[in-house]
Design a protein that fits this description.
This protein has nine helices and 13 strands. It is α/β, with parallel strands linked by helices and 307 residues long. The chain has two domains: 9-159, 3-Layer(aba) Sandwich (Rossmann fold), CATH 3.40.50.10740; 164-306, 3-Layer(bba) Sandwich (Glucose Oxidase, domain 1). The strands form two sheets. It has a seven-stranded mixed sheet with strand order 6-13-12-7-8-9-10. Strands 2-1-3-4-5-11 form a six-stranded mixed sheet, sandwiched between helices. Helix 8 runs parallel beside helix 9.
Length: 307
Amino acid sequence: MAKISVLKMIKQPPYLKKGDKIALVCPAKKLPKPIDHAIARLESWGLEVIIGDSVYASHHQFAGTDALRTKDIQRFLDDPSIKAIISGRGGYGTIRIIDDLDFTAFNKNPKWFVGFSDITVLLSHLVAQCNTQCVHAQMPYTFDTSTPEALLSLQKALFGEKQTYSYQSSFKNRAGEASGILIGGNLSLLTMVQGSVSEMDFTDKILFLEDVGEQEYGIDRMLRMLKRAGKLKALKGLVIGAFNEIEEEKISFGQTADEVIWDIVKDYDFPVCFNFPTGHIDNNLSMVLGAEVYLKVETNNVQFKYL
């Protein structure tokens, strides 16, 4: 019974319906191009899209000053007519404003927040401090290169359609089954928030990880840090997404990213799957942080289901 009560602690915002208003913001890096195509796609779902002041703002590499981005996000957090907030892109900058955001109104009237990559900081905070589900998914900046499946998975997540993902893995998995609350995101950002108020609880969770542009030694270092902190041994399952655009080292590390990860988690007994379609890829399927999921891993086949 204790586990059931823990599962119910994470609030689920109201699902979207046609006619709802949503807001677009940029908490981090500025957009280098218009996102009219993405706005049109969101409108085709029957949504009214409100464009935040940060979306086309520019201040050095950021989408406006820290103060502008904070104010922009805050007004949508506080506005009860806005039912979801979608980040235009990631990059860098969310960590600069997270502590200046006030979630008092949000906690009384939770709404969906969507993003990934650098936005992992905010997603982690929403789960850790607001006990509220949020969506790790494709952002408008890359809607034009996204697969239809990736965009459909976001639409279904926001409108409350239960989803099941099935795929074949090309790297060795550890077979097993597990059910639990889903947490995760970008490995670099999840490691960065450790020790802060934005740190998620890993105990009895199913964790998914992805990253981009790292080197094998960096992945090794970050995962070993999580292992030393006792985070990995507490898991019920591990889902490894895309680790792509790995930077070549002058002297070979001797292992691929997947081999690095396997070497670190091989002594645990929870199920592990590789090559899951999430991360900095065109087929970035939506992952609802804080949702209860079921994971079934076989040698080459994986089933991931929202409960």
